[in-house]
Automatic annotation (TrEMBL), chains A, B, C, D:
It comes from Yoonia sediminilitoris. Belongs to the acyl-CoA dehydrogenase family. InterPro entries: Acyl-CoA_dehydrogenase, Acyl-CoA_Oxase/DH_mid-dom, Acyl-CoA_Oxase/DH_mid-dom_sf, AcylCo_DH-like_C, AcylCo_DH/oxidase_C, AcylCoA_DH/ox_N, AcylCoA_DH/ox_N_sf, AcylCoA_DH/oxidase_NM_dom_sf. Homodimer. Its cofactor is FAD. The keyword Flavoprotein applies. Residues 248-397 form the Acyl-CoA dehydrogenase/oxidase C-terminal domain. One of its GO terms (cellular component) is cytoplasm. One of its GO terms (molecular function) is flavin adenine dinucleotide binding. This is Alkylation response protein AidB-like acyl-CoA dehydrogenase.
């Protein structure tokens, strides 16, 4: 069970670290400062220059599409990717610069595994090239989407078309003017068995009948120009070919979509935590109160030590989950994925919050990235299912050996 | 030790509750929705209409200036005020409607106790009437202001004037166009003993040399039009009469300023927590997942119960601290004030965060007041000194009996 | 809502404190040191001398039966009693010295409220006088007794007698040679509705057919000579008159039994916590490491402050629950009782454990009372129902207003 | 960084698991039940038969001295040993059966690295063979031994002898009648620099002048016949050859002694936690309350899931610390060792306590091993230095890069 950095990873990791530290992170603030200029939902020329310039550099250096762990050829495995993703968690722009940003990575996996050749040509190729972006429309405002069987956007066949009606929200990335296509979870047959009612369908962003109701806010942030949108679909028509795989395959695809991608955000969260600890340490040795550096006051040693211990444990758990994925047995890997989904955001939030506190009022302000890191990380406890659902999965897996053969359902 | 609601309080409390529930809270969202319209730092006509209309009603009903627990006549005591302040914590506008908003209450106390008759006429009277607003400039960006002896804005006498130079930030309320006057902590003599170097001085907001550098953000919110401002003072001159009490009296006044006012925000935080629990309960019985209302899933019963237990304990502690204040022995009351300053924000944050989680993605969004409540409450762990400083005070008080007579300094 | 110490309480409280500090606590260790001498389940002459000597003194001073808050005449109320019980929590022998020890207080309440005159003469009088002791047999080894409807000891009428069969365990106090009578929860009719199947019956300790299987241990302690016994009942016959009130009244009596007595142990737990904090402080200022007193190292200030804040909150909550009881509305008081049952043991355990840690290896040893205090307190999280059951009660009460009228069962 | 089970480990691990499950663990209770028979500090014939019988079997199967990771030949490394030690943590007798018990493993390391040939012949050989046992005398009652520079037992040269005077306590294993030799930390020169005052010396258990004052208790347990003893040394004389390495080398040897052995107890604690989780799961599916198995009530799913996540993280951290040790750079490994020393006991205590709670009253009793597991594990938070000291080490290591070159001491 090798969880370490491999020989082949090391130069890649060094290049990624170096590019983030010296080329990407230094432009984060400038990029974000352009957001309020003009229409929040377009890119300013400077934003385009920054982002596309960095992307081109990354592509030229072959620091691109690392997430694609299952492609042919000498692709990195999930353990190796984890080390890279962690670094990307330390900068606002980094994931996109390397074309490793959500939700595109998951969507690319869907097209790659379940798409027709036409879809691959039309959508996968430009996504892989970083020319367009995409969104994934799953969650709905009226139902508890943590129980995905509740998803209720209707999708009815009408001749050669499907017609979609309903609302979706939290369509992350849908504000981006480059966002060209949506993959959508819909209900095609409310009378089918519980896990066969749903399907996945591909809808171009410019299809008639799609109304952008409003950008959702995260603790007051709209995260423009990327954004999280609330949509209303009214008689949105797409050709039947746009349905992925077949009616009733929605859950199967959702599971597949969330392969390695399921823990990319965990890896990045650990990177955020590591960065927050770094800021905390820098602050603790440079700021003085009551005649001493903060590091020597009260429980600050304990806070720093606990932060280090939590990060190391979470990182190892994340690497172990990645390693389980790399073994290829999805069922065996599942509880490990659930575990890290609970642990990574939780410890990152704790450590970021401690770093905020160590910075005093500066910590909650725009003068450090901490406040923004916290609100971003907070959504992870919900974005891919609430903690409670993942803990439920872990518990069910744990109890299985004790109940099998007893005919007693676990819960 | 009567911590209950007195006979005389009951009708007042009922009137306040009623006005908040039926007249103030329903306008909170409309008021906030006007913020992005035009210049964020002016009031729209509708904002003025809402706020001044409500204030006039409150004044007409004599629901006004409750905070003034020490005035002549049948003023409420601090325990009684606590019940009112808690209610105000449940609505964005309520505290200001009743003229009980920070930092004005504390500033009015300063003028009342330490001001000259001229100051009372010029500033106290219109503040008591709700005609102007004020700010309190204490914290500075370059020093750890949790240790207030670090405060370093210079204030040098030059003939009949004092000349101020330096920076202040987190001047809450200074963005408000009605904000007419600042009370400022300055260093008048760096060579005096540690606690006699500082003074308080009154500076009209329109004095020459005051530069508003920028609004500070709290987790991305600028809280316009109220705001938290970062100022630079360059050769700002005020008459010597503007100095409060005398040179070197800064700490004495700061202590006095933070009389009952020290725990108003704790009382309001408990109100926020109570409101968050209410939202949590409503959600838990109305939302269904996995075939059950959320209330019946997993640890949700435990979360609700723990929230209730934390609120009750914090409220009782707050009432006890208020009661200690009402006894008139400031030294005896001090550790109780420190205790509630740690406890109230902490439990409110925990409960609001649980309520966020119970709401799923809606919890972090603009569709509930929870996200905004959380960011507001988070600042309380810093605004009036970080938790760690208050805990330090509690510990020192606790250990005093064990070390007295030992000539051993406690810490 | 007066939660303070009343005029009439003050001299009593002073006398109790004084007697504990100077006469009772100093003999705790000597009493406990006699336990291993001879048969653990008899009293040594010195034990008898200590205990009966102290009891006589308490009786002479009218410091006796304080728990009896509902008796005629100038009895103390529950709030007042709370202050006394807290003091008793600081010494091993104190509760018994004042005849305020469990389970006798609860049993005396049962006899007083539900007993016949004959029972009062035979059992209540000598219990009130401290001449005998009693046990309460409720919990059974084979069933989850946290759900009391599971209780299954059979009690079948046979002419003028009832015949009992089954097992009981954790009969606290049953090892005491002075323990003369048991009150027992039995199932008289397994076919009745869920809450009418059970009854309470009085059984003299020397009745034929009762077998003491073994003393139960609490973290290795048998708590001799008091003890917690595991019994087997085989055809144990008692006259029908021994049944309390009537068949099917078991739950009603159990509720009544656990009136004020329900929170006596909470009050004492708070006393234990207070005592642990005292030991922690003494240690922290007298022990030196790395050149400083422990109090000044790392997070010890924070630990001391947190302990103080937890105790104050728990104490106020306990007093509030007591006050609710004193108002006479049992239904309204119920959730408050559940709350303090969760809170008091929890905070006491945390504080005792921190005190253990502050003492280093001495903390886990026989050289301080802390280890014994911890194991005693740990059982409180189970003894009167596990935490989870009390939290469930609190949550159900909290949610009631949200579900009433909705025909939706809460949980 | 291979943290997995190696090929060569697998058959050994299987044999160890098998022997514990089928031959050792089933005799744990019988062995412990013999303790109160006769003199607690001798072995009963049955105890000897059980223990020596198992040891002989283990030796015959070459399941012996696994701890000796640095010996010549195909010894296991520390990562591999971790898997074995974890299994030993699930049974009371297992560690000793495989001659892997503390404090003998550490003492054997001392003799092996620092002993003369004479010492190796006299003490190391029979210890390796399991024929005698040993104790390590470090901690003293009068000083905070967490700061080892406080150690004050005097050791003065007098001709060809050293003369020892002072007290030691918590000499684990010293009650065992087979315990033949002590390794003792003493102060040979109070005037030397802080870290050169101390030495290590070998003292046969039967040397004149050694008084066994009393067995120390751990939450009331004396752990006979093994025990933790309090000693008084009065003019105890040993030949100068008994001094290890040289005067002033005490700290150097203490560091060396605590090589891999430093985390053996962490590995075993993880085994205990795993065993507690197993008992918790078994209980949760087999016990019913309120009409459901406990597993389906309230937060029990969450408790089980959190336990699993804590164990996995702690195990990985332990394996990483072991791997760091195996790399041979002691300085680099040190903070990892400190980390796991904090984490392993903490999570084990939490999980054992949750398992106790899930078992209701049975959990605190002698009917499950949980209560004993808890008290044993609780001492680990002190035995090898309190948590706070380890956290301090972690924090200092963390802050080093931020302060180096600044001439600012970290704390």
């Amino acid at each position: 069970m090798d969880l370490g950095q491999t020989e082949r990873l090391m130069p890649v990791l060094a290049a990624v670290k170096d590019m983030i530290a010296h080329e990407i992170a230094p432009l984060d603030s400038e990029f974000l400062a352009e957001v309020p200029i003009g229409d929040r939902w377009t890119f300013t020329p400077r934003q385009t220059e920054i982002l596309e310039g960095l992307k081109q550099k990354a592509k030229d250096r072959k620091l691109w599409n690392f997430w694609d762990t299952f492609r042919e050829g000498p692709a990195l495995n999930t353990v190796e990717y984890a080390y890279l993703a962690e670094e990307m968690g330390k900068s606002h722009l980094a994931a996109e610069v390397f074309n490793c940003n959500a939700p595109d990575t998951g969507n690319m996996e869907v097209f790659s595994r379940y798409g027709t050749q036409a879809m691959k040509d039309q959508w996968l190729a430009p996504l892989m090239a970083g020319d367009i972006r995409s969104a994934y429309l799953m969650t709905e405002p009226q139902v508890a989407s943590s129980d995905a069987t509740n998803i209720s956007m209707s999708c009815v066949r009408d001749g050669d078309h499907y017609v979609l009606n309903g609302e979706k929200w939290w369509a992350t990335g849908a504000g981006d003017p480059r966002c060209a296509v949506y993959i959508i979870m819909v209900r095609t047959n409310a009378d089918a068995p519980r896990h066969e009612q749903h399907s996945m369908i591909v809808v171009p962003a410019d299809t008639a009948g799609i109304e952008k109701l409003r950008p959702m806010q995260v603790y007051g942030h709209d995260d423009a120009p990327h954004g999280h949108f609330h949509f209303r679909f009214k008689d949105v028509r797409v050709p039947v070919e746009n349905l992925l795989v077949g009616e009733g395959k929605g859950f199967e695809i959702a599971q597949g979509r969330l392969g390695p991608g399921r823990i990319h955000h965990c890896m990045r969260a650990i990177g955020s935590a590591e960065y927050a600890l770094q800021l905390m340490c820098e602050r603790s040795v440079s700021r003085t109160a009551f005649g001493k550096p903060l590091s020597q006051l009260g429980e600050n040693f304990d806070i720093i030590a606990e932060s280090r211990m939590k990060i190391e444990q979470a990182r190892l758990l994340c690497l172990k989950a990645a390693w389980m994925m790399d073994q290829g047995d999805k069922k065996a890997a599942a509880p490990w994925i659930s575990q890290i989904k609970v642990v990574a955001p939780q410890i990152a939030l704790e450590i970021i919050d401690q770093a905020v506190q160590m910075h005093g009022a500066a910590g909650v302000s725009q003068d450090t990235p901490l406040a923004h890191m916290w609100t971003n990380t907070r959504t992870l406890r919900l974005a891919d299912g609430p903690d409670a659902v993942h803990r439920r999965q872990v518990a069910r897996a744990e109890l299985k050996p004790y109940t099998q053969g007893q005919n007693a359902p676990v819960g």
